[in-house]
Design brief:
Helix content is 63%, strand content 1%. The chain contains 14 helices and 2 strands. The chain has helices at 12-22, 31-44, 56-64, 67-89, 96-122, 127-138, 145-156, 172-197, 208-227, 229-254, 281-286, 293-298, 320-327, 330-347, and strands at residues 261-263, 266-267. A hairpin with a 2-residue loop joins strand 1 and strand 2.
């Protein structure tokens, strides 16, 4: 059982591939993208999902094994090292196709190593883990995610009040706009409301949203100063790509699922059947079990290695990478998913 934790080193393959990409030219640059969005989806089409849960003894061991946490902590310096290398190499002259490849690889790291791991750490109550989560979100200039996600999304998921829950029939690209803008506005509302509860004005140094804006602006200024405006522009594109990867994941996780109202502004508790689940093994490991999303929303405090499968949770047609590609083609997505929603609704 002790060695089970090491399977979560699989995401390091993306990092190793990215490191090679940053130091090579030609096809080598594109290997992490090919691996993440071609090879993995193809393999997961033929691998049977694994819905096995840990038994009580295994769960106790996994819960007390610090390796699972150390792997997450290790991601933080790796992400910043990759960002530094990216900024350095982007100062050099290179073919446009190589430059585009490097930007996309950095964007992939922003989404997988940055925001995804920050999401896991952001649910922890430990102040150090919270700091690490915010540090990772800084690499995509998306620090407010921790406010909107923890205090908004988990409260309002599957309701009209949640901008990060995709509605039935809503195309991915319209969802991007609604979610990104809605999450930012929601973060300000939550932060300002917390200031009001403390008897403080919204424009106050303790306002977390103000703190985040100051940190991110300072981060950007330093980047421009040390690496130049052009390199900063390349970073912005990579950061946006990381954000869009996150929002695509949000889209597939809750598309078309809703909670029943129980009163004025109140809804039933978020249950496993209010989130799309995926037990496809490679995707689970690559994203630190994010795809077992049904249990994550049911019990947000559960660490990634303990997340469970529920028989009554709706299942995506394939793993996260393949589902993200499917969502990128709205007519195909609707054809597959709307039928699954209809079938799932009849079973409930």
């Amino acid at each position: 059982m002790k060695w089970n934790a090491f399977k979560y080193l699989l995401p390091v393959l993306i990092y190793v591939g990215s490191w090679a990409s940053f130091h090579r030219t030609g096809l080598w640059i594109w290997l992490p993208i090919i691996y993440g969005f071609v090879l993995i989806p193809l393999v997961e089409m033929f691998l049977k999902p694994n819905d096995k849960n840990l038994d009580a003894a295994e769960e106790t061991i996994a819960k007390n094994d610090r390796l699972y946490d150390l792997f997450l902590y290790f991601i933080v310096p790796l992400q910043y090292l990759a960002l530094f290398v990216f900024l350095k190499i982007m100062q050099a002259d290179m073919p446009v196709v190589d430059r585009v490849g490097h930007i996309m690889v950095m964007g992939l790291l922003c989404g997988t190593f940055g925001i995804n791991v920050a999401h896991e750490l952001g649910h922890r109550v430990n102040i150090i883990e919270q700091f690490l989560a915010k540090s990772l979100l800084l690499t995509s200039l998306y620090m407010h995610f921790i406010i909107a996600h923890n205090k908004g999304h988990h409260k309002y998921v599957g309701t009209p009040y949640d901008p990060a829950s995709a509605r039935f029939g809503e195309p991915l690209y319209l969802f991007w706009i609604r979610s990104i803008t809605g999450v930012y506005v929601e973060s300000w509302k939550i932060a300002n409301a917390e200031m009001k509860k403390k008897g403080l004005p919204a424009f106050h140094r303790k306002n977390e949203m103000l703190q985040f804006q100051l940190i991110q602006v300072t981060f950007c200024i330093l980047m421009v100063y040390f690496f130049g405006i052009a390199v900063f522009a390349y970073f912005l594109v990579a950061a946006i790509m990381g954000i869009l990867l996150l929002e695509t994941v949000n889209y597939i996780e809750h598309y078309g699922l809703s909670r029943k109202p129980t009163g004025e502004g109140k809804y039933e508790r978020a249950m496993p059947h209010h989130s799309w689940n995926s037990n496809h093994v490679i995707g689970r490991l690559m994203l630190f079990e994010l795809s077992r999303h049904s249990d994550h929303h049911y019990q947000a405090s559960r660490k990634y290695q303990l997340l469970r499968h529920y028989d009554n949770s709706p299942q995506l047609p394939t793993g996260y990478p393949g589902s993200m590609l499917l969502a990128a083609i709205p007519p195909l997505w609707f054809k597959v998913m709307n039928k699954k929603i209809a079938g799932f609704s009849n079973l409930k």
